[in-house]
Amino acid sequence: MSLRKYLTSRVFFVQVLIAIAIIAALGYLFMHWLTFTTDHGHEIEVPNLSKLTEEQVEEKLDELDLDYVLLDSVDYRSDFPQYSVVEQDPTPGTKVKVGRKIYIKINTSGFSSVRIPELVNKTYREAVPTLKALGLEEGSVTYVPNLGKDMVLEMRFKGRNLKAGDRVLKSSKIDLVLGDGKMSYEEEEKAADTLAAPIEEEIPVDEQ
Protein backbone atom coordinates (compact mmCIF):
# COMPACT_ATOMS: atom_id res chain seq x y z
CA MET A 1 0.00 0.00 0.00
CA SER A 2 1.35 3.37 -0.97
CA LEU A 3 1.85 6.12 1.63
CA ARG A 4 -0.86 8.23 0.06
CA LYS A 5 -3.41 5.44 0.27
CA TYR A 6 -2.35 4.67 3.86
CA LEU A 7 -2.82 8.31 4.97
CA THR A 8 -6.33 8.30 3.53
CA SER A 9 -7.26 4.86 4.81
CA ARG A 10 -9.62 4.02 7.62
CA VAL A 11 -6.85 2.30 9.57
CA PHE A 12 -4.81 5.52 9.73
CA PHE A 13 -7.74 7.58 11.05
CA VAL A 14 -8.51 4.96 13.69
CA GLN A 15 -4.90 5.04 14.85
CA VAL A 16 -4.95 8.86 14.99
CA LEU A 17 -8.11 8.79 17.11
CA ILE A 18 -6.57 6.23 19.44
CA ALA A 19 -3.43 8.39 19.82
CA ILE A 20 -5.53 11.49 20.59
CA ALA A 21 -7.50 9.55 23.21
CA ILE A 22 -4.31 8.32 24.86
CA ILE A 23 -2.83 11.85 24.95
CA ALA A 24 -6.05 13.24 26.42
CA ALA A 25 -6.13 10.52 29.08
CA LEU A 26 -2.48 11.15 29.99
CA GLY A 27 -3.11 14.89 30.16
CA TYR A 28 -6.10 14.38 32.47
CA LEU A 29 -4.15 12.05 34.75
CA PHE A 30 -1.20 14.49 34.86
CA MET A 31 -3.42 17.45 35.81
CA HIS A 32 -5.16 15.35 38.45
CA TRP A 33 -1.78 14.35 39.90
CA LEU A 34 -0.56 17.95 39.81
CA THR A 35 -3.68 19.15 41.62
CA PHE A 36 -3.23 16.48 44.27
CA THR A 37 0.47 17.14 44.87
CA THR A 38 0.12 20.95 45.05
CA ASP A 39 -3.10 20.74 47.10
CA HIS A 40 -4.73 23.08 44.59
CA GLY A 41 -8.03 24.54 45.73
CA HIS A 42 -7.37 23.80 49.41
CA GLU A 43 -6.26 27.13 50.84
CA ILE A 44 -6.22 28.46 54.38
CA GLU A 45 -7.00 31.99 55.48
CA VAL A 46 -4.18 33.48 57.54
CA PRO A 47 -5.49 34.45 61.00
CA ASN A 48 -4.80 37.73 62.76
CA LEU A 49 -1.89 37.11 65.14
CA SER A 50 -1.63 40.68 66.42
CA LYS A 51 -0.99 40.97 70.19
CA LEU A 52 -0.68 37.19 70.63
CA THR A 53 2.26 35.67 72.47
CA GLU A 54 4.59 33.27 70.68
CA GLU A 55 3.01 30.34 72.51
CA GLN A 56 -0.49 31.44 71.43
CA VAL A 57 0.74 31.84 67.84
CA GLU A 58 2.14 28.32 67.78
CA GLU A 59 -1.06 26.85 69.17
CA LYS A 60 -3.29 28.74 66.74
CA LEU A 61 -1.22 27.94 63.65
CA ASP A 62 -0.90 24.24 64.59
CA GLU A 63 -4.69 23.97 64.42
CA LEU A 64 -4.57 25.31 60.85
CA ASP A 65 -1.57 23.22 59.71
CA LEU A 66 0.51 26.35 59.35
CA ASP A 67 3.97 27.15 60.69
CA TYR A 68 5.71 30.34 61.82
CA VAL A 69 9.18 31.88 61.83
CA LEU A 70 10.22 34.48 64.40
CA LEU A 71 12.17 37.09 62.46
CA ASP A 72 13.12 39.64 65.10
CA SER A 73 11.91 41.89 67.87
CA VAL A 74 11.01 45.53 67.29
CA ASP A 75 11.47 48.63 69.43
CA TYR A 76 9.02 48.64 72.31
CA ARG A 77 5.52 49.83 71.47
CA SER A 78 3.34 50.76 74.42
CA ASP A 79 0.12 49.92 72.50
CA PHE A 80 1.13 46.23 72.31
CA PRO A 81 1.65 43.81 75.23
CA GLN A 82 5.22 42.75 75.98
CA TYR A 83 6.49 39.88 73.81
CA SER A 84 3.38 39.95 71.61
CA VAL A 85 3.15 39.95 67.81
CA VAL A 86 3.50 43.41 66.29
CA GLU A 87 3.93 42.51 62.59
CA GLN A 88 3.16 39.45 60.47
CA ASP A 89 3.66 38.37 56.87
CA PRO A 90 1.45 37.31 55.08
CA THR A 91 -1.15 39.70 56.44
CA PRO A 92 -4.43 38.49 58.03
CA GLY A 93 -6.97 37.22 55.50
CA THR A 94 -4.41 36.12 52.92
CA LYS A 95 -5.06 32.68 51.36
CA VAL A 96 -2.12 30.29 51.68
CA LYS A 97 -1.34 26.59 51.23
CA VAL A 98 -1.09 24.08 54.05
CA GLY A 99 2.30 24.21 55.76
CA ARG A 100 2.97 27.81 54.77
CA LYS A 101 5.30 29.71 57.12
CA ILE A 102 4.02 32.92 58.70
CA TYR A 103 6.80 35.39 59.53
CA ILE A 104 6.30 37.39 62.73
CA LYS A 105 8.00 40.16 64.71
CA ILE A 106 7.36 40.58 68.43
CA ASN A 107 7.38 43.46 70.87
CA THR A 108 10.26 43.86 73.32
CA SER A 109 9.85 43.90 77.11
CA GLY A 110 10.23 47.66 77.45
CA PHE A 111 11.83 50.83 76.22
CA SER A 112 15.61 50.82 75.91
CA SER A 113 17.60 53.72 77.32
CA VAL A 114 19.48 56.34 75.34
CA ARG A 115 22.08 58.94 76.27
CA ILE A 116 21.06 62.57 76.30
CA PRO A 117 23.07 64.51 73.69
CA GLU A 118 24.58 67.92 74.30
CA LEU A 119 21.84 70.34 73.33
CA VAL A 120 22.72 73.34 75.51
CA ASN A 121 23.62 76.33 73.32
CA LYS A 122 22.03 74.58 70.34
CA THR A 123 19.09 76.19 68.60
CA TYR A 124 15.56 74.86 69.00
CA ARG A 125 15.54 73.80 65.34
CA GLU A 126 18.69 71.74 65.90
CA ALA A 127 17.56 70.23 69.20
CA VAL A 128 14.17 68.81 68.20
CA PRO A 129 15.39 66.68 65.22
CA THR A 130 18.26 65.40 67.38
CA LEU A 131 15.82 64.25 70.07
CA LYS A 132 13.54 62.56 67.55
CA ALA A 133 16.46 60.77 65.89
CA LEU A 134 17.21 59.15 69.26
CA GLY A 135 13.61 58.07 69.80
CA LEU A 136 12.85 60.87 72.29
CA GLU A 137 9.96 63.31 72.20
CA GLU A 138 9.74 67.05 72.62
CA GLY A 139 8.12 68.01 75.90
CA SER A 140 7.09 71.45 77.11
CA VAL A 141 8.98 74.53 75.95
CA THR A 142 9.64 77.36 78.41
CA TYR A 143 11.12 80.76 77.55
CA VAL A 144 13.27 82.79 79.94
CA PRO A 145 15.00 86.15 79.46
CA ASN A 146 18.23 85.54 77.56
CA LEU A 147 20.19 87.11 74.74
CA GLY A 148 20.07 83.96 72.57
CA LYS A 149 16.65 83.68 70.96
CA ASP A 150 15.40 80.08 70.76
CA MET A 151 18.71 78.84 72.16
CA VAL A 152 18.55 75.82 74.48
CA LEU A 153 19.60 76.82 77.98
CA GLU A 154 18.45 73.77 79.94
CA MET A 155 17.12 70.26 79.37
CA ARG A 156 14.68 68.80 81.89
CA PHE A 157 12.96 65.48 82.49
CA LYS A 158 10.15 65.23 85.03
CA GLY A 159 11.30 68.42 86.70
CA ARG A 160 14.99 67.56 87.06
CA ASN A 161 17.78 69.10 85.03
CA LEU A 162 19.60 66.87 82.57
CA LYS A 163 23.13 67.07 81.33
CA ALA A 164 24.75 65.47 78.31
CA GLY A 165 25.42 61.77 78.95
CA ASP A 166 22.48 61.18 81.29
CA ARG A 167 20.32 58.20 80.33
CA VAL A 168 16.56 58.19 79.86
CA LEU A 169 14.16 55.67 78.32
CA LYS A 170 13.17 55.96 74.68
CA SER A 171 9.94 57.89 74.04
CA SER A 172 10.61 60.06 77.10
CA LYS A 173 9.52 63.68 76.78
CA ILE A 174 12.36 66.14 77.23
CA ASP A 175 11.38 69.64 78.33
CA LEU A 176 13.41 72.50 76.90
CA VAL A 177 14.19 75.89 78.41
CA LEU A 178 14.89 78.43 75.66
CA GLY A 179 16.07 82.01 75.55
CA ASP A 180 13.48 84.56 74.44
CA GLY A 181 16.05 86.91 72.86
CA LYS A 182 14.66 89.91 74.78
CA MET A 183 17.54 90.46 77.20
CA SER A 184 20.18 92.86 75.93
CA TYR A 185 23.86 92.02 76.08
CA GLU A 186 24.40 94.61 78.83
CA GLU A 187 21.53 93.22 80.90
CA GLU A 188 22.89 89.69 80.52
CA GLU A 189 26.35 90.79 81.68
CA LYS A 190 24.85 92.67 84.62
CA ALA A 191 22.81 89.64 85.63
CA ALA A 192 25.88 87.41 85.38
CA ASP A 193 27.94 89.85 87.47
CA THR A 194 25.22 89.99 90.10
CA LEU A 195 25.16 86.22 90.41
CA ALA A 196 28.95 86.04 90.51
CA ALA A 197 29.48 88.85 93.05
CA PRO A 198 30.38 87.64 96.57
CA ILE A 199 27.87 88.39 99.32
CA GLU A 200 29.39 90.51 102.08
CA GLU A 201 28.19 89.38 105.46
CA GLU A 202 27.71 92.10 108.06
CA ILE A 203 29.46 91.30 111.32
CA PRO A 204 27.64 92.75 114.33
CA VAL A 205 29.78 94.98 116.63
CA ASP A 206 29.71 94.00 120.24
CA GLU A 207 28.41 96.73 122.44
CA GLN A 208 31.04 98.12 124.79
Automatic annotation (TrEMBL):
Keywords carried by this UniProt record: Membrane, Transmembrane, Transmembrane helix
Transmembrane regions: 12-34
A Pfam family reported for this protein in Swiss-Prot or TrEMBL: PASTA
Keyword Membrane listed: yes
Protein name according to UniProt: PASTA domain-containing protein
The keyword Transmembrane belongs to this UniProt entry's keyword annotation: yes
SUPFAM superfamilies, per database record: Penicillin-binding protein 2x (pbp-2x), c-terminal domain
Stretch list, region Disordered: 189-208
All residue ranges annotated as the PASTA domain in the record: 41-108, 110-180
Compositionally biased tracts (Acidic residues): 199-208
